[in-house]
Amino acid sequence: MAHFVSQPLNHASATPAANRRRRALLTLPDPYDTRYPRPIWLRALRLAASAWWMPLAVYVVQAVTLVAATEQAARFTAPPDGGLVARALRVDWVPTFVVEQPVALLVVVIGFVALLAALVGGFAAGWWAAADRRRETQVLLVRLARPEERLDAAFVQRALAPALAWQLRTAQVRRRMVGLVMGLVALALGIALGLGALPPGS
């Protein structure tokens, strides 16, 4: 059976869209890279890294839910006060803690810096996960070419560009579906936490 990269190319491969797709294969990855395909446990870790934003989404949703539910119970007679906002953001304990503990302010500052570092780290982890998926797709595609075909990098780039574009589009749709599910889970969890923080009888 003929190998797909050995089939003649059509003129569409010279279009700007095809050129953009070929840029993803500008430097051919090593088809013998033993890191790919990733094992199941590393794929799970990569998926978790992609969901770095979920705790932040839950935090924001629960705060908005708590403020909105409290204001709705009061029939929006006045804008939310500072105490309500602090309680929604789960920082209403900070003033008392700072007053009662001599080193509390330092602890709060260190905690804030650690939180920022965690957000930066989460963003970096998400970037790594996306880049690693693209790299895995490239490696597995180049692995389909015959060894003698890989000697002509330009030919492999042209031949694999349509397949790479299709695989990247498929992966993008799959990621969007997973992201939608994660977003709905974060929304539901945030709403539940926000409503759970309401005072009894509200």
Could you walk me through the main structural features you see in this protein, from its secondary elements to its overall organization?
This protein is mostly helical and about 200 residues long. It has one domain. The protein has helices at about 15-25, 40-50, 55-75, 80-90, 95-100, 105-140, 155-195. Helix 1 (about 15-25) packs across helix 7, helix 3 packs antiparallel against helix 4 and helix 6 packs antiparallel against helix 7 (about 155-195).
Tags for this entry?
elongated, mainly alpha, 202 residues, 0% strand, disordered N terminus
Question: What is the mean pLDDT?
Answer: 81
Number of helices: 7
By secondary-structure content and strand pairing, the structural class works out as: mainly alpha
What is the succession of H and E elements?
A: HHHHHHH
Give the total of domains: 1
Rounded Rg: 25 Å
Distance from N terminus to C terminus (CA atoms, Å) equals 71 Å
Oligomerization category of the chains in this entry: single chain
Give the percentage of residues in beta strands. under 5%
- The tally of strands reads 0
Give the overall shape.
Answer: elongated
In percent, how helical is the residue content?
Answer: 55-70%
Q: Any low-confidence stretches, pLDDT <50, length ≥5? A: 1-13
Question: What's the story with the biggest beta sheet?
Answer: none
